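Appendix B.2, paired examples.
Example (i):
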Amino acid sequence: MTFDCADPRSLSIFWNATLGYEFPAPPPGFASWDAFSETLPPDLQNSASASEDPAGAGPRLFFQRVPEGKTAKNRVHLDVRAAPGLQGDERMAALEAESERLVGLGATRVRRHEPGPPMDAGHIVMQDPEGNEFCLD
């Protein structure tokens, strides 16, 4: 899954903290991605970043710098499973707690949807630090 963004490294740090992901190993011969980045021309530094599920089960996220800003609502978004197996008030309390944690990491809370038929157990719409929508589900 690829994100167009202004600051790939910062956005990947946010998603690493949100999902429990990690940066992939740096290129051979480099102790860190920062050390690798320092070898690049200034215009290529922080032009891309990636995040991976350390268990290898979730999708890889790729972040690429683009010159234009976000202009419209996402047509595709991530649902972050923050309350699997929970229902009712217990579910919504878990979503609220996760929303507060992510706001502390730089996310923006957009709105809360109360549980309702037929398929909505309740969720919270959020935006990452660059305005990409996602749901706490």
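Example (ii):
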Amino acid sequence: MSDRASYWKANIRLVSICLVIWFIVSFGLGILFVEQMNAFSLGGYKLGFWFAQQGSIYTFVALIFFYAWRMNKLDRQYNVHEG
């Protein structure tokens, strides 16, 4: 497999992992499992409500930083980095 194909495969794998995590947190914890999550609380709020309102947003922002950090590593690994 060429370096270009390997780089693309690693990129798609990273994007897929990030999307799965975001789906689990936003849809799974905020909607599907909200009743089970509401058995716990965070800062006085039911955890299911918190994930639906704030947790998915925080997770999304964290995933943006994680993706940028990991892509910089991949870029250096495959020698396609800037500068």
